[in-house]
UniProtKB/TrEMBL annotation:
This is G2/M phase-specific E3 ubiquitin-protein ligase. Keywords: Metal-binding, Nucleus, Transferase, Ubl conjugation pathway, Zinc, Zinc-finger. It holds the Pfam family zf-HC5HC2H. Residues 1-115 form the PHD-type domain. The keyword DNA-binding does not apply. PROSITE patterns: EPHD. It is found in: Nucleus. GO terms for cellular component: nucleus. PANTHER family: G2_M PHASE-SPECIFIC E3 UBIQUITIN-PROTEIN LIGASE, PHD FINGER PROTEIN. One of its GO terms (molecular function) is ubiquitin-protein transferase activity. It comes from Struthio camelus australis.
């Protein structure tokens, strides 16, 4: 190894040893990570694990001048980070001398004198217990070789056992062996020098490790099997495909034998249904809801094995709200049969006067502005988590989604790092600018793609859709994460969430009642309308009979004995289609929105976040831009000289007397098409200077405007510069 000078090949102690013949270079991974004078400046596939070859050479030259305080040989590339400590050493020497190396954040190293230690009580120090990994005795002494669990009082480990366990389990499965705590346990072990690799567990990577578990039940148990080729015949992607019970998996049916049109639909065997019926807690109507409540969750289990990164929601947490579907609709002291829904044409409506309507709209706009000011301060508070460490994302303008997904999934990506965007184009491999405005443009394009992607459905107000492939690839989680990162890092308002989706995220799906407007599927919406607007019991029963297959698939079949039954039936269908069907995507999406604490703030301030997630931002006005840009003048220039021309020009642009728009002016000055919810940093300013043409300094969000003798000169220069600058950028 060029850094430690040893030939040992021990991945558990020193990390993987790699030799690069073309560079005449051999290096241990841990020696490279812990060296004090080198940083990972390349991409993952560049150099050695992202460390550039020239940087490694420089580090070797630097270390050649330093003597190891342990073996007294040259080449000590690692230094203690304690203030005023000048000790240097090789990585293997540090291990031998019981130094601590922290494999996190800045990869700090501590010498044997300044290393962190765990606190032991006097009583604990006298006892001995069993290592919960190797089951051998471990002395409860403040030794380097002994570690104590931070979350369990009587959990002790050998350091060597813990390190082997961490290397095998990886970051997703490494946790306390006693209580299964993950976050607190990993944080303490990283502090004490345990390396937890960012990889999947070794048993997950073993080929065909779970082959025995892939034996599926393939038999039709329906009393009258319709398949002429027998009960064991199974033809995928046809009506003779066998579907297993969503609850026990040990009974099956051909799709055709149970009148199912798609494998996506769920089915329960008679044994499981009888168990639910005999439980004593649910009525027959509630039993149907219970079957439906488990539907989507179990469908997901059949489609894929959930990733450990996205924990599975417990089934018990769903029962409590999904059993509420057959609510008794006796409100305002009316019986269920006394409240009949009539078509819109049969209902008498009252319209507000234009004066009242305008006043209400004005008040609503004022309320939305107040909420957006509130959400801006909340996002600025979350933005304090972002540090100065930079993560660069290479974004292909022709494939914004895949390149963004690759960037967000790369190992060195962290939501708390400052994001830098570099645009590229596949056609000419042209590297575009990495200016301040490129980040705004990236988030604008990414959010626009998400809005129109298959993850959402609906026209303007969108709900989550059910895309089994996206669910399998964990794309709902990534979408939530991208939205959270965009909001905190200065991305645009979304404005396309439906109220139902927003309420599901904030209050939980168990507390949300969907409406007909939430149904994007035209066929399903038409079916619901036919039931909802049935004006007699006979027509209702006829409609239910015509929709029998659909209702059976949705498990919303119920006896219809009175016209008022249609209200409960419509409610059941809406809850199934809008909420139960997408429970798994919703939970995954929520997990993603937890990034940087965004979901928690949404739940604390729902009205404020609703203004940017459910409402489109209002069009820019001259007044808005005038308030946004603060006017600064040098000492030799009077503020009034340019301010009058500036405000007059904004009014001309707003009234359409200009070839540019207010959005063009904002883009010219800040690089952003709209005002982001978090606001601009730094605050936008206008400066009036003695110069020929205006300049948009996007790094400082500053418009540097010329001082002219007449307004016509000012307007002509503004329009010429802004129009041509943006035209060149677009080209």
């Amino acid at each position: 190894c060029v850094l430690c000078g040893r030939t040992d090949d021990c991945p558990e102690k020193y990390g993987e040893k790699r030799t690069y013949v073309e560079y005449n270079l051999t290096v241990h991974y841990y020696c490279l990570l812990m060296s004090s004078g080198i940083w990972q400046r390349g991409e993952e596939d560049e150099g050695v694990y992202g460390f550039l070859i020239r940087d490694i050479r420089k580090e070797v030259n630097r270390a050649a001048k330093l003597k190891c305080n342990i073996c007294k040989k040259k080449g000590a590339s690692i230094g203690c980070v304690a203030p005023k400590c000048k000790r240097s050493y090789h990585f293997p020497c540090g291990i031998q001398k019981e130094c601590i190396f922290q494999f996190m954040e800045d990869f700090r190293s501590y010498c044997w004198e300044h290393k962190p230690v765990q606190k032991f009580s006097v009583k604990e120090s006298r006892e001995s217990s069993q290592c919960t990994i190797c089951l051998d005795l471990v002395e409860q002494l403040p030794l380097y070789s002994v570690l104590k669990s931070p979350c369990c009082k009587n959990a002790w480990f050998h350091r060597e056992c813990l390190q082997y366990q961490a290397l095998s389990a990886g970051v997703f499965f490494f946790r306390c062996t006693v209580c299964n705590n993950k976050d607190k346990f990993q944080k303490e072990m990283l502090r004490m020098g345990i390396h937890i690799p960012e990889k999947d567990a070794s048993w997950e990577l073993e080929e065909n490790a779970y082959q025995d578990l892939l034996q599926c039940y393939q038999h039709c148990d329906i009393r009258r099997c319709l398949c002429k080729k027998g009960r064991d015949y199974n033809e995928p992607d046809s009506k003779w495909e066998i579907k297993r019970c969503q609850c026990c998996g040990s009974r099956g049916t051909h799709l055709a034998c149970s009148s199912m049109k798609s494998w996506e639909q769920n089915w329960e065997c008679m044994e499981c249904r009888s168990i639910f019926a005999k439980s004593g807690n649910y009525s027959k109507q509630q039993k149907r809801s219970l079957a439906t409540s488990e539907k989507t969750d179990v469908t997901t289990c059949l489609l894929e094995e959930p990733s450990p990164k996205c924990p599975r929601q417990s089934s018990g947490s769903q029962h409590s709200f999904l059993l509420q579907s057959p609510k008794i609709m006796c409100q305002n002291n009316l019986t269920p049969c006394s409240r009949l829904e009539l078509p819109a044409s049969n209902r008498m409506t009252m319209s507000l006067s234009p004066l009242m309507s305008n006043r209400n709209w004005s008040l609503r706009k004022k309320h939305l502005r107040q909420q957006r000011r509130e959400v801006s301060s909340i996002l600025k508070e979350l933005q304090l988590q972002v540090n100065t460490k930079t993560t660069r994302l290479n974004i292909n303008t022709e494939n914004i989604w895949n390149s963004a997904l690759k960037g967000f999934r790369q190992r060195n990506f962290s939501p708390t790092n400052t994001i830098e965007i570099k645009f590229t184009s596949c056609k000419n491999r042209l590297k575009m600018d990495t200016s301040h405005g490129s980040k705004h443009r990236f988030f604008q394009l990414l959010m626009l793609h998400l809005q129109n992607s298959s993850l959402f459905e609906g026209s303007s107000a969108k709900n989550l859709s059910l895309d089994s492939q996206a669910l399998k690839e964990n794309l709902y989680f990534e979408a939530g994460k991208m939205i959270a990162v965009s909001l905190v890092h200065g991305g645009p308002s979304l404005g396309f969430f439906s109220k139902t989706l927003f309420n599901c995220l904030v209050y939980g799906p168990e507390n949300v009642k969907p409406a007909l407007e939430d149904v994007a599927d035209v066929g399903v919406a038409q079916t619901i309308k036919m039931i909802k607007y049935a004006n007699s019991l006979a027509s209702l029963q006829s409609t239910v009979h015509d929709c029998y297959e659909f209702l059976a698939a949705a498990e919303c079949l119920r006896p219809v004995t009175a016209l008022c039954d249609k209200n409960v039936l419509v409610n059941d269908i809406l809850i199934h289609h809008v909420i139960k069907r997408i429970i798994s995507p919703l939970e995954s999406f929520r997990q993603g929105l937890k990034t940087l604490g965004v979901l928690e703030k949404m739940q604390m301030h729902p009205d404020a976040f609703s203004s940017i997630l459910c409402h489109k931002p209002e069009r820019l006005s001259a007044e808005t831009l005038c308030d946004l840009f603060t006017i600064h003048c040098s000492s030799d220039i009077k503020k009034a000289e340019g301010a009058d021309f500036w405000m007059g020009y904004l009014q001309d642009v707003e009234s359409g007397e200009s070839v540019v728009t207010l959005e063009d002016i904002l883009l010219f000055g800040t690089g952003s098409f709209s005002i982001p919810p978090v606001g601009f940093d730094p605050e936008p300013t206008v400066k009036f200077l003695h110069r020929r043409y205006p300049v948009g300094n996007r790094l400082l969000n500053c418009l540097e405007l010329p001082i002219t003798k007449t307004y016509e000169q000012f307007k002509n220069k503004m329009e010429f510069t802004i129009r041509n600058t943006l035209r060149v950028e677009r080209e």
